[in-house]
Amino acid sequence: MNALAGLPALTRLALRRDRFTLPAWLLGLSAFTAATTAMWAADLTDPADLARESRLAATSPGIRLLGLASGGSAGAYAMVRNFVLLAVLAALMSVFAVVRHTRQGEETGRAELVGAAAVGRHAPLTAALIVAVAADAALAVLLGLALAAAGMPAAGSFTAGAAVGAVGLVFAGVAAVTTQLSATTRGASGQAAAVLGAAFLAAGVGNMAGDPDATGLRVRSAWPAWLSPIGWGQQARAFDGNHWWPLGLAAGCFLAATAIAVRLTARRDFGRGLLPERTGHRRAGRLLRGPIGLAARLQRGALLGWATGMLGFGLIMGGLAGQVADATGSAREWYTRTGGSDVIVDAYRTSILQMAGLAAAIYVVQVLLRLRTEEADGPLEPVLAAAVGRVRWALGHAVTALAGATALLLLFALGAAATAGAVLGDPVGEVRTLVPAALVQLPAVLVVGAAVIGAVALLPRLAGGVAWAALIAAVLTGPIFGTTLGLPGWVRDLSPFTHVPKAPAVAVGATPLIALGAVLAVLLLAGLIRLRRRDLSLPA
Amino acid sequence: MTPVIAASGLRKSFGATRALDGFDLTVRAGEIHGFLGPNGAGKTTTIRILLGLLRRDGGEAEVLGGDPWHDAVRLHRRLAYVPGEVNLWPNLTGGEVIDLLGTLRGGLDNKRRADLLDRFDLDPAKRCRAYSKGNRQKIALVAAFSCDVELYLLDEPTSGLDPLMERVFQDVVREVRAAGRTVLLSSHILSEVEALCDRVTIVRAGRAGRAAESGTFAELRHLTRTSMVVDTVRPAGGLAALAGVHDLHAEGRRTYFTVDDGAVTGVLAELTGLGVRSIVSTPPTLEELFRRHYAGSAAPQPAGMR
C-alpha cells in the first residue's frame, strides 16, 4: 500500500528514538504501582480497617472526585488511590509519544527529510500510533504483573492494567487528531492535555455526583462519568466484577479518532495544521522590550492554563470544607496530622494550601525548564549576543516564574475562600485567612525553582530529568505524601515543603523561612556562578 | 589604528574534538572582512568565542578593545550578530523579534527598520514558525542592520537568500562600510566574498581551525601558480626539470603546465630557446586558490603570509 510505504523503517526509527524514554515510563509506573499497592495491602491487613477505609472512599465526596470505590478489597482500595493518577500518566505517555513522532518532526523539519524519501502520506502517523499502542499494551501487561506481584488477585490485576492501558489508547487517538489540528508541538500536546483535563473532570464530577450502593462500599457513578475515558476505565471495576466491556468503548473511541486523524491527514498540507495560522503584531508592544518581557511572553500560555486550573481547584477544594468539618475517623486523623492542628477546618485549610504549593512548584519547574530549551534549541543565542548578560537572562525568567507562582497561589486562595466562605459563612474572613497563608508556600516553591536553575547551569544536558526527579522527590517526601507514606522524619526533612510553616493552622515562625531562604540563596548562587562560567550548549 | 578584532592562537576543544588549534584572525576598522572556509572548519566556533558565548581554551582575543568573555555585555551594545542558523520563538512575530533584539542591544532606528523591511520584502506580522529559513535569516538581518553599531558579525548570513535578496544584502553591507562600520562576514560562497570583501581569511579543512592565509585577494593570488599552454617548434618536455614547474604534460607540440609565481622568468627564458609559436598564460583563479586551501593540500607555505 503506497500510503504506508516506509512504515517498517519509520516504526523502527521511532522505537529507536524512544528506547530510553518509553522503558522509563513503563518501569517507573509499574514500580510505583507495585510499591504503593504492597504498602497499602500491608497497612490494611485488618479487614475492619479495610472496610472502614473503603466505606470512607465511597462516602466522602472529596475522595470520590479522585477515585471510584468498587468494593471492600485491598485491590479495589489501591485502585481508588492510584487509578486516576495512572490513567492520567498513561494518557500523557501516549500523547507525548504520538506528538513526538508526528508534529514534532514536522515542526523541526526532520519529517520533511523523511517525507521526501519513499514514505507514504499516512506512514508517519501510523508508525507513531503503532509505537504508542505498543507502549499502552506493554503498560497494561506490566501493571497487571506489578499488581499481581504486590499480592493482588490475577484477574483483577490484569483488568486494572488493561483499564489503564485503555485510557492511554484513547489518548493516543486524541493526540493523533490534535496533531492534525495544530501546527505546533506545544499546541498539539496542549489540546490533547485539555481533552485529558475535561476527561478528568467528567469522571470526577460523575463519581462525586453518584451515590453509594446498599453495601456502602461501592459508588454508582452519575452519567458524566460515562462521557470520560477515565470513567470507562473505572467502570471496568477491577477487583470487583472485572467488566471488560467498558474497555470496548475505549477501543471504539480510539478507532474512531484514528479514522478522523487519517482523514484529516489527507486534507491538510505538510507542516501546517487545519486551524488557520493567524498573523500577529507588526511591532513589539511595550511589555516585550526586555528579558523579563520576553520571559513573560514565553510563559504566558502556560500561566493562563494553570491559572484556570488553580482557580477551579481552589473553588472545588474550598467547597469541600463543609464536608470536612463533619469528617470522622481516619480522614479526620489524616487532616489533623497533615495540617498540624486539632481544629479540623484549620487543618483542612493548611492541607489544601500545601497541595496548592506543590502545584505551584510543578508550574515553576515547567516554566523554568524553558531556560534549557531556549539554550538547546537556539533562540538564546541572539539574546546573549545582544547586550544581555547570562545572569540577567536567567533572573528574568526566575522573576517571571515567581510572579506567576504568586498569582497562581493567590487565585487558588481566592477561589477556595469564595466557596469555603459560602459554605462556612464569613467569606471576608476566609480571604483574610487564606490569602496570606497561601503566600507562606512561596519560599519552598522558590527553593524548587532555584534547584531548576542549578540543574540547568550545572547539568545542562540532564536538566529536565534532574529537575523533575528533584521535584517528585520533594513532593513525595513533603507533608501530603510523606506522612501518608510513613517516611521517617529525616527523610521528610529533605523536602523544602516539610519546612513550610503550617499556616493558617499554626502561627508562622521566622526560623524555617530564614532557613529556606538560605538554601534558596545557596542553590541560586551556585547556579548563577556556574552559568556565568560555562560554555553554552547551542545547536551546531 | 588598533584592529577591531584581534585573535591569535585561539584554541578550543569540545571533548576530544579539536575545533580550533592556534587560530589567528585580525579584522581592521572599517573593512569588510571575509571569513572563508568549508563546513566544520570552526567558523561558527570562532564567532561564538568572539561573542563570549563560548570560552576559549587558550590564545588571545580582543573585540573592540575588550575581552569578549569578560566584557560581553558592554561589547554587545556596540556590535550586532546574525547567527548562521536562525532559531526564533515560534509564537512571536517577526516584527516583535526585530524590536525585541534591537531593544536588547540598546535601541534600534525605526526609520532604518522600516526601510530594511521594505527592501528585504518581509512581512513582520507573521509568526516566526511560519517563516521559511530565508525569511528567518532576513528577520535576523533586519534586526542587526536596524541597529547602528560599530561591528557586524555575520555568520553565513545569505545561505537561505535568493539572488535578488543577496543583492539587497550586499548593498546594505556596502552602506554600513561607507558609514565607517566594520563587518566580519563568514561564508563558504566565494563569489559573495569576492564581491564584498576588502580582506579575507581562509580557514583550511584538515588542519582544524588554522588560518591558512589572510590578506587581500590580490595578495592571495600570488600564493598559487599560473597555468600556461605553449605551442613550441621543438618539444618542451625538458621544462619539467625546471624548479617551480608542475603538472606538465604534452600533446604533440602543445605543452600544458603550471608555474610557481617566482619561477615564471626562468620558464620564459627556457621557452625562447624552443621557438614559441603561441603562448596562453592564465592567472590563478580564486576557485583554484579556494579549492587548494579547502582541500588542505600541501600548497607551498610562503613565509610572511601567516
UniProtKB/TrEMBL annotation, chain A:
Q: Which domain of life is it from?
A: Bacteria
Does the UniProt entry include the keyword Membrane?
A: yes
Keyword Transmembrane among record annotations:
yes
- Supply the alphabetized keyword list: Membrane, Transmembrane, Transmembrane helix
Q: Which residues form a coiled coil?
A: none
TM segments? 20-42, 83-102, 123-149, 155-178, 190-210, 244-266, 303-325, 352-372, 393-418, 438-459, 466-491, 503-529
Its name, as the record gives it, is: ABC-2 type transport system permease protein
UniProtKB/TrEMBL annotation, chain B:
Q: Which SMART domains match?
A: AAA
Please give one Gene Ontology molecular function term for this protein: ATP hydrolysis activity
**Broad class of the protein's primary localization:** membrane
Q: Name one GO biological process term.
A: response to antibiotic
Residues of the ABC transporter domain: 5-230
- Gene3D superfamilies, alphabetized: P-loop containing nucleotide triphosphate hydrolases
* Listed name of the protein: ABC-2 type transport system ATP-binding protein
